Structures are given as C-alpha cells and as structure tokens.
C-alpha cells in the first residue's frame, strides 16, 4: 500500500471552489472529469494542461464516448474552459473555470442551516431532515433507484432468456453485478438494456453464416466483460455508433419495428448522481 501522506503528493485547491464543486449537481462522469482535470492541472501547480479524451477515459475508467459527451456539456456550461483547441499534433488544452459564478446550466444544492449549535455553520442531516427541493428530489430518486434495481434488472434477465440465446438456470450475483455496472457506467435504462439484447440476437443470427460469426454471449459476459484489447463493455458494441450496430443493425428497421423493444437510449433519470 502506498503512503497517503500529503508530503508525497497532494492537490491544492481553494476551499471555496472545492465547496462549489460538491454542492453542484454534476453527474458521476462529470464529477470524475472535473477531478481528473484538477489532478493534472492544480496537482502539478499549473493552471491548464493538454488532456486527450483517451487519456481522461483511461484515467477515470469511463468509455471515451461518454467522456466526450460529458466533457462537451461541461465546456458548454462554462465549467471547463478550452485554452487551446486540439491540433494534429497536440491534444486540447483545458482548465477548470474557477469563477464558478459563470457556470451555466448547473444547479447548486443548498446547504442546510444547523440551529442546534453556534459552533458550526452547517451540519450533516439524514434524509428525514432534508428540506430543499433538490434534496427531496434526491431522496425520491434514490428510493426509485433501489426499487428499480431489485425488481426490473431481473426483468432484463427474463427478457434475455426469452430470446433463447443461452439458457441460464439462475439469475446469479455475477449477473446482477454486471448489469448494475453497465447501467451505472453507460447510463442505460431498462428498455435500452433489452434493446441491446435484441440487437445481439439479431447480429448473431445475421452473422452465423459469415466467415467471422458473432458468438452468443452469456448475460454477465454481455453486460460486464470488456471487449478484448479495449476499455468498453461488449454491450457497447450494440449501441448507436458501436461496431456491431454500424455493421449489422443501422439500416435494419425491423429491429425496432412496432411491437419490439423501442430504442430508448438516454441517461437514467434517477441514478446518475454524486453517490456514484
């Protein structure tokens, strides 16, 4: 285990900026990107630095596609500033906008006053003490999230079985872990998980007579295993823009015809919060 003493390396950041970051409703990927930018700017006593999408993706263990999407939002919201755009030979140079009053499209969670003592300005409460709108919404979302995980992830497994791909006997802990990670990291909803499985079945059938047929993936493998030599999950190959989607699915309207699972790709409305 490495030493965690500050003398062996630390990041200096103004308390006011630090507080502004954790009080703003960034989703998990955005927060990771911000922390990464801070690490490689303030962490090296520099104001800005050239950071590629691939570098950030590897540093925070999030797919390049989602890093690109969320970084774009952070730049549009003026949270991250582009000092110099990328060139043929150099990555884009970026920095944190430490004037957080200029951040756009970001909601700040209100701090709760502590009336029980004069020693501290603010206190930590449990969920029953939350009074602001943002905090109430957060509680509701967390409750929905827990219900969603327990009841509906199993429905994705049941749908997988109905596709007659691999006849798993039981819904195992490894399967739960795999789909939970896919949902958290890739921002899938339940409908989109089923869409990806339907596309997988379609690709397997379409490629079975080809020189390089696509093999059937088990449930845990499909949602939890990374593509060989890459950082993204196998299920990502079936997203819009993914390898198999572009090769087999893109021009096949029958895959999402009426009566089939609709393409409901989009961020989860209740999971992507600071608790990840």
Structural features, described:
This protein has helices spanning 15-22, 28-39, 53-60, 64-76, 133-162, 173-186, 190-207, 219-224, 243-249; strands at residues 49-50, 80-84, 93-96. The chain is mostly helical. A hairpin with an 8-residue loop joins strand 2 and strand 3. Helix 7 (190-207) crosses helix 9. It is elongated and about 55 Å long. This is Replication protein.
Number of helical segments? 9
Query: Which percent range describes the beta-strand content?
Result: under 5%
Oligomer: single chain
The residue-averaged pLDDT reads 78
Main structural class: mainly alpha
In helices, the fraction of residues equals 40-55%
Distance between the termini: 24 Å
Q: What order do the SSEs take from the amino end to the carboxyl end, as H and E?
A: HHEHHEEHHHHH
Largest sheet: 3 strands, antiparallel
Q: Quick one: overall form?
A: elongated
Strand order of the largest sheet: 1-3-2
What Rg, in angstroms, do the CA atoms define? 22 Å
Q: What low-confidence regions span 5 or more consecutive residues with pLDDT below 50? A: 112-137, 257-276
Number of strands: 3
InterPro entries: Phage_lambda_VrpO_N, WH-like_DNA-bd_sf
Domain Bacteriophage lambda Replication protein O N-terminal: 5-103
Protein name: Replication protein
Organism: Tissierella carlieri
């Amino acid at each position: 285990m490495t030493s965690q003493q500050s003398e062996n390396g630390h990041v200096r950041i103004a308390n006011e900026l630090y507080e502004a970051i954790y009080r703003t409703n960034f989703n998990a990927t955005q927060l990771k990107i911000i922390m990464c930018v801070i690490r490689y700017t303030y962490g090296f006593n520099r104001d800005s630095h050239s950071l590629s999408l691939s570098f950030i993706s590897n540093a925070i263990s999030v797919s390049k596609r989602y890093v690109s999407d969320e970084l774009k939002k952070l730049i549009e919201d003026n949270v991250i500033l582009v000092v110099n755009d990328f060139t043929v030979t150099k990555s884009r140079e970026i920095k944190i906008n430490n004037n957080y009053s200029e951040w756009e499209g970001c909601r700040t969670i209100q701090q709760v006053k502590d009336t029980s003592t004069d020693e501290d300005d603010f206190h930590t409460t449990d969920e029953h003490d939350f009074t602001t709108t943002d905090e109430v919404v957060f509680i509701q979302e967390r409750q929905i999230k827990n219900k969603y995980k327990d009841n509906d992830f199993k429905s994705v497994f049941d749908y997988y079985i109905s596709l007659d791909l691999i006849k798993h006997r039981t819904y195992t802990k490894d399967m739960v872990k795999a789909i939970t990670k896919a949902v958290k990291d890739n921002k899938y909803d339940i409908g989109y998980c089923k869409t990806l499985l339907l596309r997988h079945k379609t690709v397997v059938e379409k490629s079975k007579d080809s020189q390089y047929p696509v093999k059937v993936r088990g449930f845990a493998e499909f949602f939890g295993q990374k593509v060989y030599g890459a950082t993204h999950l196998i299920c990502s190959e079936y997203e819009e823009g993914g390898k198999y989607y572009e090769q087999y699915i893109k021009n096949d309207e029958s895959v999402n015809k009426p009566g089939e699972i609709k393409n409901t790709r989009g961020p989860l409305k209740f999971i992507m919060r600071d608790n990840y």
